[in-house]
Amino acid sequence: MVSWDGGGYVSLIMIYSPSDNPVQWLEYVATQIGATIDNNTLVLNGSADEGSISLFPLEEGLIMILTETESNLGMRKLMQYVPTDYLFMKLYLPDHHFTTAAKSGFEYYQITSPGVLLYNSHLKLSSFFKVQQRFKVVSFAIHADWLKQTFPSDSIFSEKQLFDVPLFRFKNVTPAILQSALNLFTLKADVSPVRLQMKAIAFDMLSQLFPAFDQRRRTNLSLKNQSDIEAIFRVREQLLDHREMNYPTVDVLAKQAAMSSSKLKTLFSSVFGMPVFEYYQHHRLTYARHLIEERKLTIGEVGLKIGYNNLSKFSKAYKKQFGYLPHQTLLPDRAIV
């Protein structure tokens, strides 16, 4: 469902169930929040300029939801319900970004960077926005039966456990996927050929997103409990702290997270899709590129700032990640993504 509250806070949870077709779903939400419906699109405050939520059934049990609105809309809060037999993918887009907090007891952990979030009904999510911030969200609601029919038996998406325990995974995605998601908002969906184009874009995105999450069976695909998730996100925040670029060892991080090193490595990889050091390396080099683009420091100073005393090693690691050397970052034909 969708819920709003005033004061710059918005919580979005999209649902679709076998007993509700998209039109009925939109009609119900419209009556709850005083919105109107136009061409399978929920129009907020009577004007598409104020915002809209559009549902696009791709197949039976697979729905794409496009949301575009402003954070300062004053609407009464709706009761939240997420069916237990659905998975959800939510794309966080650059320049239309907001913070998502997942509740763990009385604590919250947060996602603050562009990427894709995969989760199920066992976690409560809230999203926070700046006042009058306009945002865009691309979401997919995916039924268990659709997953079972689509994926082989050794895929994690065929696991019953996927719906029985808390599942929360976040992945960085390519700029191309993020751009495809943004392109969906520029298309006029009331024209049949355009709807086919949107469907093609959606399936192309999903064909890249599913493999990013899909690991073979026998992997630890879910977290034991929400306290584990909270601990893993605290580790992540420490790794992303640009004030401290000395890499803490896994043993030190595990001790701070109150878990064994092996458990930390397994859970971290399960949530973020890469080992601890690889994740740290990826983000500190991304930070290095940001510093180079600012043109305030020399290449050598940037290398030192992110923990490289050897410029040659910095250049080698930088080229391995981005495909070009640090000093080539600002070439006229270099695409900044």
Task: Name the features.
337 residues, alpha+beta, Jelly Rolls, Arc Repressor Mutant, subunit A, 3 domains, 8-stranded antiparallel β-sheet, 5-stranded antiparallel β-sheet
Describe the structure.
- The strands form two sheets. Strands 3-4-5-6-12-7-10-13 form an eight-stranded antiparallel beta sheet, sandwiched between helices.
- The longest helix has 22 residues, at 192-213.
- The chain has three domains: 2-213, Sandwich (Jelly Rolls); 226-273, Arc Repressor Mutant, subunit A; 278-328, Orthogonal Bundle (Arc Repressor Mutant, subunit A), CATH 1.10.10.
- Helix 5 crosses helix 7 and helix 6 crosses helix 7.
- It has helices at 22-33, 144-150, 175-183, 192-213, 226-239, 250-256, 261-272, 276-294, 299-305, 311-322; strands at 2-5, 9-12, 36-38, 41-43, 51-59, 62-70, 86-92, 99-104, 107-111, 115-119, 125-128, 134-143, 168-171.
- The protein has ten helices and 13 strands.
- The protein is of the alpha+beta class and 337 residues long.
- Strand 5 and strand 6 form a beta hairpin.
- The chain is globular.
The largest sheet is: 8 strands, antiparallel
Uncertain regions: pLDDT < 50 for 5+ in a row?
1-20, 72-81, 216-223, 333-337
Q: State the CATH superfamily name of the largest domain.
A: Jelly Rolls
Distance between the termini: 33 Å
Global shape: globular
How many domains, in number, for the residues? 3
Radius of gyration: 21 Å
What fraction strand?
15-25%
Mean pLDDT: 73
- CATH classification class of the largest domain: Mainly Beta
What is the H-and-E element order? EEHEEEEEEEEEEHEHHHHHHHH
Helix coverage percent of residues?
25-40%
